[in-house]
Input
Amino acid sequence: MKGTWRQGLWLADGMLLAVALIWGSSYAVAKQALLFYPVLGFLAIRFGLTFVLLLPQLRGGGRRALRPGLPLGLVMLAIFLCETWGVMLTSASNAAFLISLCVVITPFMEWLLLRQRPHNTLFLACALSLAGVWLLTGGPQLSLNLGDALMLAAALLRAVLVCLTRRLTAGREIPALALTAVQSGVVASGCILLGLSLPGELPALPAEPAFWFAALYLVLFATLFAMFAQNRALGRSSATRVSLLMGSEPLFGAIIAGLWLGERLGPVGWAGGLLIMLATLCTLGIGRQPAPSTAGDGAPVRA
Output
């Protein structure tokens, strides 16, 4: 019996590392897709496909996701607009490290919005993360470009989304896939409306197989498989263990960006990225109370 439990734990850990690898690769995949199609069109396709695949989840009890899903979807729309334009305007490795600052920002956002004072260790983590961002964006020759600034805005908005999700779903049984369906529908609809008002953002659908491979990869693996793996792992392990394993995402992102896109971080950049990862691990290791087991706790953020 003990051996079966341990085997299940190792399987869950392996799936989580696979998710971290997939999420780390998502920045390079999105960057490649944006070579073929504009940001708004790409997001409309990506989240439109997600919505269509998850539409059956809105039957019956899934309809309870409509009320919280609409405002949460608007925040998610802002996140992905910042994140996707940010990925296009900065390196995939920078994007992966900067977006992980969400983990450090979230406790402070909880303090502001939910009146939950962060642990004192988080102030050290914040100092480490700020030093990491300074090194990652040039150190003494600081050069925070627009893409980096957008990734920082996306990290801040992700923290807002986590806190808002906890507030809107507290004490309510809302299926995770149903909530993701509503949020995806809002993001897709918002991108279509914005695209129709901006010339050139919704051209004819691309014919390049590389674009459709990227879109399907993000929908099937970065969203659907990732949600399944997280939910399975949370049933077999602690939230802290899950979070620590997922904390390897930015490292995978930097490695994949180097191997696939030929991006190179210098020693100063690597030092900054590792400081950000260290700050993230400090934050996750504090052992805060996990959020209620409701739909949006983390999964829809990376849809």
In short: The radius of gyration is 19 Å.
